[in-house]
Amino acid sequence: RKEVEQDPGPFNVPEGATVAFNCTYSNSASQSFFWYRQDCRKEPKLLMSVYSSGNEDGRFTAQLNRASQYISLLIRDSKLSDSATYLCVVSYNNDMRFGAGTRLTVKP
Amino acid sequence: DTAVSQTPKYLVTQMGNDKSIKCEQNLGHDTMYWYKQDSKKFLKIMFSYNNKELIINETVPNRFSPKSPDKAHLNLHINSLELGDSAVYFCASSLEGWARYEQYFGPGTRLTVT
Known about the structure:
Number of helices of chain B: 0
Oligomer: heterodimer
Strand content of chain A: over 45%
Distance between the termini of chain B: 34 Å
Number of helices of chain A: 0
Shape of chain A: globular
Structural class of chain A: mainly beta
Largest interface: A-B, 21 and 20 residues
């Protein structure tokens, strides 16, 4: 089992749609969780950290389920500019692991 | 005023050559990293440096060696390049050890070994 697993997609959705991604992790002692965004041929950039109580940033909502060892990202009212690859990141002490990413394409 | 910069952006070289990639950050961060992203887009940590001290060294071939002349720089040297080294290499930095803090990535260096 991979340490951090994501559905690679691609997810193709129309503008305005709501889309959700899940990410599972194998290390139950993992401490910190993040979602990064990577545009084509660009560097990854932090989208949001994921807190135990769940957190929201505009159209983006992240949740953590420690019991089931997964984190999720919900995007509401999708925009064309949301098209990118979304990377799930899980860390334990000084060890950080990236998922392979979920590719999202938002179409007009 | 680029936060994390890398040079060169593209590097094409032949097998067996030795090459270096430079990385600089102007954020005042304590920790810097090198990542490799292969053709399957999987991002994997290679090295990290904290105040000139190597704190993580993943199981990469010893042909790869990080060198940090100061806190703002972490260069990557690669000896005897192989075809499998072709990938995009990203430098990154963070305020402290990476467990809790955002990492800022450089634009990447696309290495092609022929």
